[in-house]
Design a protein that fits this description.
AMP-bd_C_sf; 21 helices; EC 6.2.1.1; Acetate--CoA ligase; binds adenosine-5'-monophosphate-propyl ester; AMP binding; 32% helix; GMP Synthetase, Chain A, domain 3; 8-stranded mixed β-sheet
Length: 658
Amino acid sequence: MSDDPAVELEARLEEQESFEPPASFVEQANVSDEGIRERFAEEWPECWTEAADLLTWDETYDEVLDDSDAPHYEWFTGGSLNASANCLDRHVANGAKNRAAIKWEGELGETRTYTYGDLLNEVEAFAASLRDLGVEEDDVVTLYMPMIPELPIAMLACARIGAPHSVVFAGFSADALATRMNSAESEYLVTCDGYYRRGDALNHKEKTDNGLRGVEGDVETVVVDRLGDELTHFLGEHAHDYGELVEAHEGASVEPVSRDAEDMLFLMYTSGTTGEPKGVKHTTGGYLAYTAWTSQAVLDVKPEDTYWCAADIGWITGHSYIVYGPLALGTTTMMYEGTPDYPERDRLWKLIEKNRVDTFYTAPTAIRSFMKWGTEYPERHDLSSLRLLGTVGEPINPRAWKWYYKHIGNEKCPIVDTWWQTETGGMMVTTLPGIDTMKPGSAGPPLPGVDAQVVDANDDPVEAGEAGYLTVQKPWPGMLRTLYKNDERFIDEYWREYSDPDTDEWVYFPEDGAKLDDDGYITVLGRVDDVINVSGHRLGTMEIESAIVGVSGVAEAAVVGGTHDVKGEAVYTYVILEDGQEPTEKMRERVVEGVEDAIGPIARPEEVIFTPELPKTRSGKIMRRLLEDVASGAELGDTSTLRNPEIVAEIQAQVNED
Ligand code: PRX
């Protein structure tokens, strides 16, 4: 035993495998009914009226779930509502006009606060502007913007007039923008001149213009002037200034369009196993009810809170838990434009102190960076306003969990490790913070009403202690309804039908591996398909491979994820050059540039390994598993089925050399 209390505490934490929710949290938790899981199971699917009741409906629904055309499940059928009216008008009408809806901070420190009243006014003005530009109900509007308030404003303006939005992450490349706009046949785009990253003004307009060159047909474009004199830009034909439009429509009153519960609220493109991104379709009723319910039950959101999800709205986490869930509940949601280490590594903690943030939700990759930077940064700030912490996007290792618990939460905040996906719309597997014991590294039990099970290769449930495939055996309100214009792929990739004489059931496969713990908790192990997870960002290996093969001089490429201390996984590329090409530094740079141009800097390869051949089986299939082992420095698996086993040692030697 050490005499030093800090060392002793550290040692105790290291050994501790489970944590109870702190009493101070339990007393005030939104969900405290320990029987909620049994209740939801007994009352399924009617249990989900509890989620629908968080919303204001224009027309109440006739049926909670219509499963007559499975797996095309429909939720709250016959109901109608508007998402922007649920996020704005009803709060303004209920006396929250002057409550802050969005608190925004730019990277250079400027701030903007929009009350619910302000937000409604600007949303109406922009909705009227969009209509003037010709946007009609069901037209897809693409939003290519960084973390500035005009992004959620544009989302809500689209929702108000029944035009689905398709947000493209601002860090994606021009090519990625064009692919997504063409796929959605989107004729409207909202973008901005630029934004700040580590103090530099980035030119986003130029990237947008390059993207638009690859889009078929004319696109009406709205440009937000974020940078003013810092970066001048010119508006060409079909381009309009956001500020001028909003000014011209100030005071406009735009009646929210009543949408059927099953009408599309938005499209979100995500990566899959082929090179073609998938347009995940989410609906108005089920999605909004589900994000509101999970925000309340899991993130314990209360209207008087200042709540901060430090994700980017360009990904599903930002859609569900910066914009729709929190605003549907009428809370104050924070947005920060920049990076966590600018100007110093205490930026996030400074923001928490200054805004008295109650709940903080981030990704394990960020927590691993904070750990690396050291405790001195959070220690500079008073983080005592925090009541709850959350993580999302990738498995969290117990060490990072405990660091977060101790150094950010001061052992007073429960942590929710929330497993879900773009496709699920909202959280699926996580502890409920006021009820459940927490086990670092394990996401927890499925949420009430969610039938998640781990199954083996024969699709039978595994025994406790065993690993298998994660499945969801019953539908849920936030589920994707289809892949835009690709319903066949929706059914093929996600669903399997079981038709024994008694049941005709469809099971959802998220393509994740998981372990079932003795107590029914689920430890998510990671993807079982060719999708990798870099810093919580989902990337398809095929997309990266096709970008590399597009570089002249490259004959073939294989991309895998290798383990990485901070990013979780990193992109490893194995490249075969055409005859006569040399594996020079220049060539390496061209490969990296090729990936950045096709996707964006997030997909930047960690390593480019030139090799004369790839390890292949006798039937000619690339043995990715071996390439992953090499990238992760792991012991190599069986190489006996290879046609060219000698190549593995050669590649391995090269990686070690690098
Ligand atoms: O592999 C799982 C991982 O992220 C994938 C979904 O990525 P995306 O659609 O981009 O959505 C990320 C944000 C919801 C999943 O298939 N994942 C997500 N959350 C967790 C996770 N893996 C382990 N633990 C989690 N909490």
